[in-house]
Amino acid sequence: MNLQWRGLGTALWLALSLSLPLAAVAAGRHVSIIVDTSGSMDRNDKPRYTLLLSQILADLLEPGDSLTVIRLPQSEGSCDDGENPALAVPLNSTDRNSFQAKLDRLLYYGNENYFAAPVHTAQADLERHKDKARLLLFIADSGGLDKCEVKLTEDLKKLRDQGVMVAAINIGGVGAFDSNPAFTFTTGASDSEELTKSVALVYQKFIGARQVQTGRVGKTIEFELGPLVKDAYLVVVADGQMEALAGDGGNPEAAEIDLDHKGGGHALGLDGRRRDYRIVRIHHPEAGKWQFHAPELRQNAGWMLLQDSAMALRLVSPAKAAQGVNTPLEVELYDQDTGKRLNTPPEGLQASVELEGQKLALRDDGQGGDRLANDGVYTTLADFKQVGPQRIGLNLQSALLDRRSHVDMLVEKVGWILQADALGSVEVDTPVSLHAQARPTPPGQTSVSLEAVEAFYDGTVLTRLGDDGGNGDKQAGDHRYTGLWTPQKTGDYSLELRPVGGGSTQPITVPVKVVRSLRFGDANLALRLLPPAKKPLQGAKATLEVELYDQDTGKHLDNPPDGGLQASLDAEGRTLTLRDDGQGGDRLANDGVFAVTTSFARAGIQQLRMNLKGKLLDSHNEADVEVEETGWALKADPPGSVEVESPASLSVRAQPSIAGLTPPQLQAVEATLGGNAEASLRDDGKNGDAKAGDLRFTGLWTPQKTGDYTLEFKPLGGGSTQPVTVPVKVVRSLHFGDAKLALRLASSAKVAQGVDTPLEVELYDQDTGKHLANPPKERLQAGVEVEGQKIELRDDGKNADRKPGDGVFAALARFSQAGSQRIKMNLQGKQLDRQSEAEIEVEKVGWTLQADAPSRVEMDTPATLGIQAQANPSVLSPVPLQAVEVYVDGKVQASLRDDGKNGDAQAGDNLYSGQWTPQAIGERNLEFRPVGGSRAQPVAVTVKVVGSIRFGAPVPVKLGRTGSNSQLQGRLELGAGTVVKGEFTLDLNSAYHASGSSLEIDLGEGWVALDGHARPVSLNSKGPSSWPLRLRVGDCPAGVTAADRFTIEFAGADANGQPVRHSVPIELAITEDPWLHCWWPVLAAAAAALLTGIVIYGFWSPSRFSAKLGVLLSPEEDMNEGFFHPIRAQRGTGSGFYRDARVYVRPDFRLSASAKGELARLRADGRRVFIRPATAATVYRQNFDGAWEALPTEETTVHFGVVYKDSMGGVYFELRNG
User: Fold this and answer.
1) Whole-prediction pTM value?
2) Which DSSP helix (H) or strand (E) runs through 887?
3) 83 and 221 assigned to the same domain
4) DSSP 36
5) Which stretch is the leader sequence (predicted)?
6) Tens-digit pLDDT profile for residues 971-1002
């Protein structure tokens, strides 16, 4: 064997896996193992795990189980070598020490691979245990049966045909066993871990287990046991000495727990180390999680859990069956220990039977021939085609099980076929006649007559049916068998009719329902229709109810007998079952009222036929039911609020009330109010209807009164269609609802004579007195009548109106007459024509004012304002004005005087002057109001106020000098000479750029970099005039000297759109780091990359053998007798670090990665291969004329097709591509 173990852990796994036969050798099982004991095992099994395995296996076997271990012979024999008892050690359960001593002497290594004698020894051993489940397992590295393969394959096929499972595990790969037809299961293993899995797979299949739990021993050993486990074994193997295992508290219960089963054992390896094992046996454990631990265990150890279930299947129906007839096969699930049936199978359990090449599922669901669901008895119907003895297979499978067993059946030709008369329902305590007709098969063939037919139920004979002309049998000898049976209990039964005598006849089953008396006293029973709550609608589901009553008395009868009555209803050619069980439309069970839910395809009067059947009862009554024609379902669009005396659109959608049925045409929909028709809605594409024929009916309705109403939409035509209603609210105005609108004067009630005066009136609610804003422009018209002249009032922000849509209407009016006057205000709209009046005092004007103000001024800068007062010629000697006040936003902001002071040029010239300093930017409305003196009308002008910005001398930012990994702080200041009036948004930027450093500023929302991208900054008179500034310097920055000039720039535009710029110098210096400090990571990375490249090249550059390259080794010069060995299949023949791949040819016809015992070395070199003889060896090469020549001691090129040999002529080899 060429497999090298990888330490204790893997080897322990192998030992534990091989111990899996403990479950396989449960009672009634035998295992034969052929172990490869060739010389290679001396190297590969120094711990002697084969010995340890055998001891473990011996301790796990129960009485009645058996085991035989067979080794290979020391010398070669012939393929006909027979049984050799000297190669085998059978288990001696009575003398444990003797068996272990024999195993110790048996399992030594050193011979070659000779399989004939071991196979024939196993064959004889298995024959002696043919009454048990048997397994023959090969564990070998030969890859086949060598020269005896043909002979031994035939012998193994015979064993397989006898039911022996023949399995093989080929060490190093799949090997030749994989294609050998004698093997039931084969698997390969290229390393020790795969060998572990392979052994487990073999034995799982043999014992019918699906799951094996394994692990390494830690603080605790934790595993989970399934239900109905007969025995569970916990096996622990340690790489040293160990004590007995201990159980942890809290484990589930078990019938028996042996913590040191048979005292454990040990094996002394070839390496001088003692290895112990311990076993815990758990008998009939409860399902759940279990925990154990190994006290004072200091060595590595592994564990495996093995479970053997007590569940199995056995045949309970007769082992005889008739040919060509569906035969019920019944098997039951039982406990092998107690022999009792398991009435409650575990979840996920599946059972099947294999017969005559087909697999049939067994079922326990009360269907397909199974008599009772979930009783642990599985059933299938089998039709046997072949006559004679047969072996059928029983399969039991679950998540943990995959068990198979066999049962012998006898299939006979059928003599008679029985056919029973259907019984249906029968009365309890009333004799009932049973009949069975027997017909010969094949037809026309005379068979021995049946003696009788017996009726069985639950294994008990109920009655006997005869063909003797007595006990109800009409005619003797007509093969019709008759008998009487009086049922004692109500219920559903399945009677089995079994033939007595008369050859092979298959039993049959007859279902029967036993009920109470069908007769309901002496009442004359019948059914009558109960009037439906509403007429059924064509195509719609409707529930019809009929009641049980006495035709003689007319009284309703409730509580009818179960199963004694069958009620049905015939409608439209269909027979419908009437129910009185509280389901399917029936409201209350057993109340004597039967119901059915159905639908009618036709409208009109339908005739119903009600049927009532029972024993000695078959009554029929008829009734009529009117079915309404299907109609439409209407859905109205809610109009919500509508305006009085304004046409409102009404819309109703129609769709068939029963999908798939088209009702009669709907002519129109009528909208009614209080029973009176208000509007007609149609689907004709006219009068507001968008599209004809789209089933949307539309019309117009003009309400006459305000209030809350309910409109009812009634269909005209269209079959059975229900009206629908919608609420609607009628209001005076859709905009102001039910508000009582009117106008009132909002401006001053005093005006000046002969001057255009703004008159303002506002819209308000007369009930609440509240002002109403945002009136609808298209629905209200306002006007005012002044001195007989009508003037339109506007609310559109034009002319005298100050703001559109605010509910304040305005117009310019000139009063020609002084004194008190009344003006009329008119408001008109839908159903609205309201007038109101106001008293106006018209005063004579003494002065007319004319404003003199600049159109554009600067914020926070005084501006000169002037008013020229001109005397009205019609007024003699008007009193001079005291002053003129300037109002802005309703507040006095300046006073203009004619006193020759504060900017007034000359006193008494009626030119009023003064200074005004604006405080806000934008369009400002200045109102000049006279103070004192004769009457004068105020005037107003609009002035635009703008801002300004002027920068003073720049204030340099002095940050100073710094080095790497540091930070400098400073402030950016506008300086005292900078003046900002208003608000301006400028772009802030800097051209500073130096690698490894960043200039940053905090404008109030966190630090941002000045990196060439403009940053917006807002400047105003009340805002900040300086901002924090910092310079962050990282590792290895670029140097900056005092000679380097950098600035921070403000850029934008002033109020006039002219560009504005302001530049602030920055004074800073940065000292560079030393060169080596900055470049050492790059140098280190380059060095690491170079070293990595050297290492990678060291592994990549050496030459390798191609994947198909191999050496053909032969003991003769005829290379056709040789065996091809792929080079890369040998471990250690790959390339190394700066070392070409090499392999050594050995005199024992093997390839090796080791130079020990070499004949010659082969080395890969690019696409070539070089050969060099060993130091003490001579290698010959055959030249083109067939002569042999010795190779030189140095390397030479190997040529394909050239044969090489050793000096003795015992080994010939040739390089080939496989």
Assistant:
1) 0.39
2) strand 883-888
3) no
4) -
5) 1-26
6) 989 888 888 888 888 899 988 888 889 999 99
